[in-house]
Amino acid sequence: MAKTNQKWHERFRDRGLRFTQPRRVILDVLDNTADHLSAEEIYMRVHKKYPNIGLTTVYRNLITLERMGIVTKFHFGDGCHRFELIENKKKPDHHHHLVCTGCKRIIDYDDFMDEEIEYIKKVESALSRKHSFNITDHVIQFYGLCKKCKAA
Amino acid sequence: MAKTNQKWHERFRDRGLRFTQPRRVILDVLDNTADHLSAEEIYMRVHKKYPNIGLTTVYRNLITLERMGIVTKFHFGDGCHRFELIENKKKPDHHHHLVCTGCKRIIDYDDFMDEEIEYIKKVESALSRKHSFNITDHVIQFYGLCKKCKAA
DNA sequence: TTAATAATGATAACCGGTAGCAATTAGTAA
DNA sequence: TTACTAATTGCTACCGGTTATCATTATTAA
Ligand SMILES: [Mn+2]
Ligand SMILES: [Mn+2]
Ligand SMILES: [Zn+2]
Ligand SMILES: [Zn+2]
Predict the structure, then answer these.
(1) Which residues have CB under 8 Å from B149's CB, separation 6+?
(2) With 50 as the cut, is the pLDDT of residue B1 above it?
(3) What is the value of pTM for the model shown?
(4) What are the helix (H) ranges across chain B?
(5) By CA distance, what is B147's nearest residue in A?
(6) Which residues of A touch B144 (CB under 8 A)?
(7) Is A64 exposed, middle or buried, given 0-12, 13-18 or 19+ CB atoms closer than 10 A?
(8) Which of A100, A109, A122 sits opposite B115 (nearest CB)?
(9) Which fold would CATH assign to domain B1-89?
(10) Which residue, A62, A107, A111, B77, is most buried by CB atoms nearer than 10 A?
(11) Cα(A67)–Cα(B12) distance, rounded to whole angstroms?
(12) Per the CATH hierarchy, to which homologous superfamily does domain B92-152 belong?
């Protein structure tokens, strides 16, 4: 914990940013969940222990964390953005998402990552050449109904 | 044009829905562009020729068209939804998207669709089994910088 | 310790999208 | 054609997620 904080501290310092209490707390929340939390959900968890930290601060820092490459922002089709710590021990390193359109549950999966990486490489190199594009990221999501929602 | 309208008319009638002027106009806009328009952009094009058609009507009908499977709704990371006619002569049938995070340009591509369909099938069957999921849809998007935005 | 300034928190504003509702219109049956 | 009925429209007000403002506070390097 202490050493992790040390690591975060350095990453902020290297950019001329400060390692504030709100940032510490937000990172702690994100590191201790396997969920894909919205800004408000993060705020509520933060608020429980630190009621003086504001919602705006959470929003602002999520943007900052995304810019720093610490957090990834997703859009799963409900009306808000959801966030995930990139280096989170509770999750597979490189994974994608399976989303239930009924109950909105989100499942991380990393099956067939080898095939996928191969496919992605192919597409990326072809599209890079064809369109002079510099591809930096991708989104792959599957939508459907989970067991419960199928039955209901 | 006339026969196409006839076809639309039938699809609406089959569901007990009416083929109204706003719907005609919205479909016309969507069929005559290769772009991925937002609701407001569609509204503006509609508004030029039919200033009496309201924005709310456009929003409502886009939902209807999506439910009917005539239109697909996307989210590319700018703050709005974008829509595309599924059967549009100006576009490849089954395609995915390349998005410039700089200028927000969206490129349709259908390279490597065979490989992709194979990969998707594999993942879908594996995930369906593993999580008892009924997969109905997927999103695959590549993000990066286009030629111009790279240079700038 | 202190000065410089990054960051915060409260509030108000913004913006894409919806709900409510009276007025209109498309489709059907006479 | 006409009349009827329910679907649809176009206002307007409203909503929820997110962002701008700005005076105040807290972090950090010197
Ligand atoms: Mn995840
Ligand atoms: Mn497209
Ligand atoms: Zn579900
Ligand atoms: Zn660009």
Answers:
(1) B100, B101, B102, B103
(2) no
(3) 0.92
(4) 2-13, 21-31, 39-49, 55-67, 113-131, 147-151
(5) A132
(6) 133-137
(7) middle
(8) A122
(9) Arc Repressor Mutant, subunit A (1.10.10)
(10) A62
(11) 46
(12) Ferric-uptake regulator, C-terminal dimerisarion domain (3.30.1490.190)
Taking CB atoms and an 8 Å cutoff, what residues of chain B touch A142?
123-124, 127, 133, 135, 137-138
Provide the positions of strand D that have an atom within 7 A of a protein CB. Answer: 7-13, 16-21, 26-29
Q: Tell me which amino acid residue A111 is.
A: D
Collect all residues of chain A within an 8 Å Cβ-Cβ radius of residue B129: none
- Amino acid in position B55: L
Compute the distance from residue B84 Cα to the ligand 2 centre, in Å: 6
Domain spans of chain B?
A: 1-89, 92-152
Give which of B116, B133, B138 to mutate to test A binding, by max A Cβ within 10 Å: B133
CB B140 within 8 A of CB B96: yes
Chain B's closest residue to A142, CA to CA, is B138
User: Tokens 């508004």 belong to which residue?
Assistant: B47
Cross-chain residue pair A142–B138, CB shorter than 8 Å: yes
Amino acid at B104: K
- What pLDDT, in 10s, does the model give residues B23-55? 999 999 999 999 999 999 999 999 999 999 999
CA of B74 to the centre of ligand 4 (A): 18
Is the C-beta atom of B13 closer than 7 angstroms to strand C? yes
Strand order in the sheet with B81-85: B37-38, B81-85, B71-75
**Region for residue A141 given its phi and psi (left: phi exceeds 0; alpha: psi -120 to 50; beta: otherwise):** beta
User: In which band, very low, low, confident or very high, does the pLDDT at B22 lie, cut at 50, 70 and 90?
Assistant: very high
- Cα–Cα distance for residue pair A8/A25, rounded to 1 Å: 12
**Using alpha carbons only, how large is chain B's radius of gyration in Å?**
18
